[in-house]
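Deviation from plan, reported transparently: iron/sulfur cluster complex.
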Amino acid sequence: MIKSPLLDLVKEKIVDKNVTVIAIVAPTTSVAIGEHFGYKPGENKISNLVSSLKKLGFDKVFDIGYTADIVAIEEVFELLERKVKNENLPMLTSCCPSWINFLSKQFPHLAKHVSTMQSPMTVMGSIIKSFYAENEGLDSKNVFVVGIMPCPFKTLETNYVSEALGGLKPVDVSLTVNQIAGQIKEAGIDFNSITDFDFDAPFNQTTDVAHIFGYAGGVGESVVEFAKRFRPDIELKLIKTSGIENAKSFLESLERGEVDADVVEFMACSGGCVGGFGMACQTLKGEEKEKVVAARKEGLKKLASEKKRKIYNATGHSLFKNWLGTPYSETAKKYLHKK
Ligand code: SF4
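Because the crystal trials were delayed, the predicted structure below was used instead.
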């Protein structure tokens, strides 16, 4: 029996008929959850997971990949504005809470470099508790959002309280892959044989970008590639780096003005989220761990190759068309960015 006050809270909300409980799942989770049920790292088991989450009692299950796309678009526009004004460069990516926590505690004077964009997880929570709740006729105070993530540090993001949401938290609880696998086993659900469900609409459509966010380099590459499509005349320099042990020396170089880049992607786990500590094999080290991380990365690349890389016509994206208006609009800044 796995004991945790967070799990107890989720169970309490699931049995409360007045509350709509929504699971939001990171792309990396889909290629790692199977490891708990006898599959190899990198095997996509998303239908088994979504079906198991429905059996556990979640009302809806949405794909965080949807908001990874939105994050990439918003970061592009934020970066281009900084570049044109030549201010606060390089822009540092903001979707790894462990890295952001280190920077804010050890180098708070460099915070102006950090992108104001929230992470794909909290962007999804913000959209659910505003746009989606309104459309579905739900009171957002009775919507409970649970992240299913590769990362124990995502709990840090559940402390974020949004002014735009009237003081609600976009995401109420973040559980790791290990925790949710434990719940599935404890409930006696036959994970391997149930594949009845897939992600729920409307947050079930992604491009390949959503999947490459899960490994080191993916966020930065997506931003630079999208930027080229919007402004091919602007040349952008990208640095991709990972491993929290490298954060101090990197930030010291930034302090000395020695970082020659417009945008820097920094992920605390070596290899990015595919190396996150909330998944099976977290105790492995060296070559053994590298093999698992590489297999999960291959799994994400395979998923990405199955998605069509569209040239983003931001105004054609349903969320921009129906709610946000244009990328980096005042509505987008209010709901999706931090002040
Ligand atoms: S890189 Fe690691 S610490 Fe950062 S968000 Fe991903 S899993 Fe979490």
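Residues 21 and 59 are 6 Å apart (CA to CA). We consider this an acceptable substitute for the interim report.
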